[in-house]
């Protein structure tokens, strides 16, 4: 069996990627490496934990010795690297975690792969999963393409941009067989409720204010998480080495439009009067340096690799809401941790 290392597989997107690979590719043995930070949750992948082609490894990508040992003990054919600090607001209050995990952690993995694969890079692949936020902020027109110049604006996006540069540098300098993708905002089951959609769903259920930063005019391009996992699968198996692909949902919405759609759906699902949930919308102090608009031109991946998103947004939103409403235990387990402390610090007095 071929050993494949997936990092960050206890997080939101990583858990969908791990599940997909464990189920669809019995000839791979999937090693899921995750430090189980606040965002890592083994419940996200409880359904596959006993599969014979799956092993969970608790470990920190910041620990170079640990990573080197892992690679010397296992002959990985590939790495799909998703482990990261991923929340912009946390990067504003605590940038150093983003520098150490997203930059140094990525370099530790690159060094270990380079050392372990030095006999031959044939058949190997180091796939770095990144974000469209590295391109910075768009005005009301235009799209990010793969050649758009990097212009990151938050500590999070700057740390991801740095890691992308280092991955490309290892490809160029050492001929490490790398590929990169930059994806738009994901939504779907298992997303930690610090991000807009699950936070709003949880607050609506509990009749708490829904905090909208600024005027809610910022635009994001939303992609259902399983579609991101399918794009990652396509790129991992079919992209030429050294390539970069943008992944997006062709689904731009202003935050306020998105939240109004969500409120209507939540009224329907919770049997509340029409307009009840929208009363919870509360405009709060804007995020510092808040990027106005992200929008992906995903024509390269469609043309080269034949990938397109499978779900339209209204259907994806319904699936997402249904999942959160039928997994109240998953939410409760998160809320019982440090979440309330984080929430008070982030939103009090805004
Ligand atoms: P997440 O925060 O939900 O999960 C991150 C996972 O990484 C967690 O399981 C966490 O425990 C693990 N992790 C964090 N630091 C670690 C460390 N030092 N060592 C080992 N494991 C560590 O993030 P996500 O939203 O699933 O994002 C996954 C990846 O996709 C990230 O690289 C992110 O930049 C990228 N991405 C995310 C989005 C999005 O909309 N969420 C969009 C594009 C790209
Ligand atoms: P988020 O889910 O944090 O993703 P990102 O910042 O990576 O795009 O935020 C999505 C959008 O929603 C972004 O424009 C910030 C905004 N937002 C709010 O208005 N209120 C909130 O409480 C949060 C978490 C985000």
Q: What do you see in this structure?
A:
The protein has helices spanning 12-24, 64-73, 88-93, 95-116, 155-174, 196-205, 225-238, 255-270, 299-305, 313-326, 328-347; strands spanning 2-7, 28-34, 54-58, 76-81, 125-131, 178-183, 185-187, 210-213, 219-224, 244-247, 252-254, 281-284. It is globular. The chain has 11 helices and 12 strands. The model has no long low-confidence stretch (mean pLDDT 97). The strands form 3 sheets. It has a 7-stranded parallel sheet with strand order 3-2-1-4-5-6-10, with helices on both faces. A 3-stranded mixed sheet has the order 7-9-11. A two-stranded parallel ribbon has the order 8-12. Helices cover 43% and strands 17% of the residues. It has 350 residues and is α/β, with parallel strands linked by helices. It folds into 2 domains: 2-187 and 222-247, NAD(P)-binding Rossmann-like Domain (Rossmann fold), CATH 3.40.50; 196-219 and 252-288 and 313-340, Alpha-Beta Complex (UDP-galactose 4-epimerase, domain 1). It binds nicotinamide-adenine-dinucleotide and thymidine-5'-diphosphate. The site of thymidine-5'-diphosphate (TYD) has 12 residues, from helix 6 and strand 8.
CATH C-level category of the largest domain: Alpha Beta
The CATH H-level homologous superfamily of the largest domain = NAD(P)-binding Rossmann-like Domain
| Low-confidence runs of at least 5 consecutive residues | none
Amino- and carboxy-terminal Cα gap: 53 Å
Helix content: 40-55%
Which structural category do the helix and sheet elements fall into? alpha/beta
Task: Kindly report the average pLDDT value.
Answer: 97
How many extended strands?
Answer: 12
State the CATH topology of the largest domain: Rossmann fold
Number of helical segments with 4 or more residues: 11
Strand order of the largest sheet: 3-2-1-4-5-6-10
Oligomer: single chain
Could you say what the CATH architecture of the largest domain is? 3-Layer(aba) Sandwich
What is the overall silhouette?
A: globular
Tally of structural domains = 2
């Amino acid at each position: 069996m071929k050993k494949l290392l997936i990092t960050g597989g206890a997080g939101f997107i990583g858990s969908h990627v791990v599940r997909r690979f464990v189920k669809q590719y019995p000839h791979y043995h999937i090693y899921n490496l995750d430090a189980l930070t606040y965002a890592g949750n083994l419940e996200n992948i409880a359904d596959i934990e006993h599969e014979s082609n799956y092993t969970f490894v608790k470990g920190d990508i910041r620990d170079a010795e640990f990573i080197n040992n892992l690679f010397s003990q296992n002959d990985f054919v590939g790495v799909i690297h998703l482990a990261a600090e991923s929340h912009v607001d946390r990067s504003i209050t605590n940038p150093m975690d983003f520098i150490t995990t997203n930059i140094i952690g990525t370099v530790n993995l690159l060094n270990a792969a380079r050392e372990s694969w030095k006999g031959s890079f044939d058949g190997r692949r180091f796939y770095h999963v990144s974000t469209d936020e590295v391109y910075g902020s768009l005005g009301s027109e235009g799209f990010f393409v793969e050649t758009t110049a990097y212009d990151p604006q938050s500590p999070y996006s700057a740390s991801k941009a740095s890691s992308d540069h280092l991955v490309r540098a290892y490809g160029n300098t050492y001929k490490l067989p790398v590929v990169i993708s930059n994806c738009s905002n994901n939504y779907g089951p298992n997303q930690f409720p610090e991000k807009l959609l699950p936070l709003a769903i949880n607050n609506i259920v509990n009749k708490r204010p829904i905090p909208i930063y600024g005027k809610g005019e910022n635009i994001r391009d939303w992609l259902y998480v399983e579609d991101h996992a399918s794009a990652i699968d396509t790129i991992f198996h079919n992209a030429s080495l050294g390539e970069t692909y943008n992944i997006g949902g062709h689904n731009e919405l202003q935050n306020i439009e998105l939240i109004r759609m969500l409120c209507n759906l939540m009224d329907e699902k919770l049997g509340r009067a029409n307009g009840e949930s929208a009363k919870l919308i509360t405009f709060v102090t804007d995020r510092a340096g808040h990027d106005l608009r992200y929008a992906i031109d995903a024509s390269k991946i469609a043309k080269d690799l034949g990938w397109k998103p499978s779900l339209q947004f209204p259907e994806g939103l319904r699936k997402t809401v249904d999942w959160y409403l039928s997994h109240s235990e998953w939410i409760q387990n998160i809320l019982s941790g440090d979440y309330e402390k984080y929430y008070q610090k982030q939103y009090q007095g805004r």
